[in-house]
Amino acid sequence: MKGGKLPKRQRLIGLWLLLSGISLLGGAIFAAWLDSLFQPQGLARLVLWLGCFSGGGTIFLVGLLLERMLFTPLRHLQVQLARLVANPDAREDYPPEGWLRGLGPDLMRVREAWRSDRARLATAHAEGARSAARIRQELETLLQVLDTPLLLCDYHRRLLLFNQAAESLFENHPGLGLGKRLDALLPVSSLQDSLGKLPDNGSPRELLIPSNERWLHVNMRRVPQSNGETLLTLTDATTAWTSEMGARAGLAERVAPLRRHSASLASAAEALGSARHARHVDDSLRQRLETVIGEECSALGSEIENLGRLIEDMQQQGERLVPLWSNDLWQSLNERLAENPINVVPIGMPAWFKGDAPTLLVMLEALLERLSQHADTTDFESELLLGNRRVYLDLIWPGRPLPQRELAAWGEQRLETLPLSPRVGDLLRQHASDAWSLADPDGIHARLRLPLPAVERVGAPPSQLPPRPEFHDFGIADLPPPDAELAQRPLRALEVVAFDTETTGLELRRGDTVISLGACRIVNARLLASDNFDVRVDPGKPIPPASTAIHGITDDDVAGAPPLPVILPRFRDYIGDAVILAHNAAFDLLALQSPGSGVTLEMPVLDTLLISRALDESLDGHDLDTLADRYDLSFPPGTRHTALGDARVTAELWLALLPRLEARGIETLEQALMLQATAFDKEDACT
Length: 687
Prior knowledge:
Layout: H1 9-38, H2 43-86, H3 104-124, H4 126-145, E1 150-153, E2 159-162, H5 164-169, H6 182-185, H7 189-196, E3 205-211, E4 214-222, E5 230-236, H8 238-245, H9 247-277, H10 283-316, E6 322-325, H11 326-336, E7 343-346, E8 352-355, H12 357-375, E9 379-386, E10 390-398, H13 404-410, H14 424-430, E11 436-439, E12 445-453, E13 496-503, E14 514-522, E15 527-536, H15 545-551, H16 555-558, H17 564-575, E16 579-582, H18 585-592, E17 605-607, H19 608-615, H20 624-630, H21 643-663, H22 669-677, H23 682-686
Parallel strand pairs: 7-9, 13-16, 16-17
Antiparallel strand pairs: 1-2, 1-5, 3-4, 4-5, 6-8, 9-10, 10-12, 11-12, 13-14, 14-15
């Protein structure tokens, strides 16, 4: 036995077969010698040979009996105990058997008592848990519907909470995630200085800071009676800043030229008027004055045109004019018309435009009611056509175009349901728009056309993400400081990134490379459901059909994907200060750190294959499928042999191994690394 553990099954079987073989061979040689020496006959000869073979046969039969009645039941018992330690509610596949069958009632009693104690404890805390769950649900609902981005960080500036608005504001930013440092999200020295000087009474402090190509208005306040937690609310101030530095600044610049040209024009006109009443005036002077007046009129007209464009830009940049997807507008319009016989059917390609959705809906409803009376129909079509700088919103009906005089009268209609009862014309001017009617080339249909500001954006809006199951984890505040010695950090306090790769093949030293990289994050011994990294990688070579048969990735799937040297810096940013975890990490690290990759992963590496082998040296099967079955883990359909799917199960396997490590006194990263080092052998090094 090695280190107090059962020897591996292969060693036991090898030793048993070796002893049996030696005994049988020795018995055969001894029987042949006795047979030649005494030359017995009949029954005596049979007894002699049987006696000489009895030792080897006895060893073989005893070994077979021990394997069937003792060693196999012991291995099954070990698997069942490991599963129960990892998960007390795990299924029972291996009831005691063989010579251990008598332990069945006792093991059942221990398991039921364990579960009964847990049930009583759960019942004792049920009321408090129910109240906490209700508070948590209300908090998460509030965070989901709140439009203001929120960040809550602890004394060490680790994120304890953020909401969906913050997730949208920092979309795809590697620094956003529970447990990550605020410094990675907003690396601005002025912000760090302000955080250090916040008063403890909850008084707010405001700051304007740059973030990529935006300006963020940050409101900070210390949470009173807390352990140094700080709440940050953020507002994207880029639009207001751009407005102040753009169209509004241009408007101020246009005032001086207008005044100058107006003054020059007034002086020239006054001089020309005086010259006309004078008797002795040179014609050349009169011509020069007329020329000056013409030039100043032209310049004044040009400045007025520039002023008009600036005003139009200001209208398009108004806070109430936001990007709208035409399909969303038509759907909302039909919902408003649900109790109205008017029906609007969108045709053509959808598009983006800028508008004030609430006022547009009211105005379109009023215009459709007028059109329905004019055209004597309740069925209309709607279409958006792309122009140069405008998008044309058309309402289509069978019939003749509207007279411009009638349209002008419609523009005076007041919309009583809106604040201040604006007119239709007022809303059109708000959108820098107008309205006119024209006939279709088919001679059957007519259109009412409203030009609206365009948006430099293509493609349908992304589907609404489901609410994240983790918005907060206040337990992060109880973790050791980020600058604490990593080797002595408790395993449950580690930030862990579990990752996996899919490759073109297994011969990494002969040119096979990564085609998919997936990872997920564990914070405070909790697997974050939506904090993941999942990308395809262009291998720069065809994917063999044999590899595609395993992971299902084809050449078309990686066409246009970035190469590995582009992906690795992003993956390194995703890891941050975490420890990395993999199953058979040597293979995945070799795949990622091939020559020329340009990024070195120097953080500590945990390997669930080695840890499982060190914990259960006597058990066979430490591959991911076997361990998933052993610990009652499951792959969602279609996720096996996908990088992210395997990474998730590896993370769940690590969480299942944690109680077993702690039961053996292995509680720090240093101890876990020492344990897995004992299971690293020459075969792993060669691999």
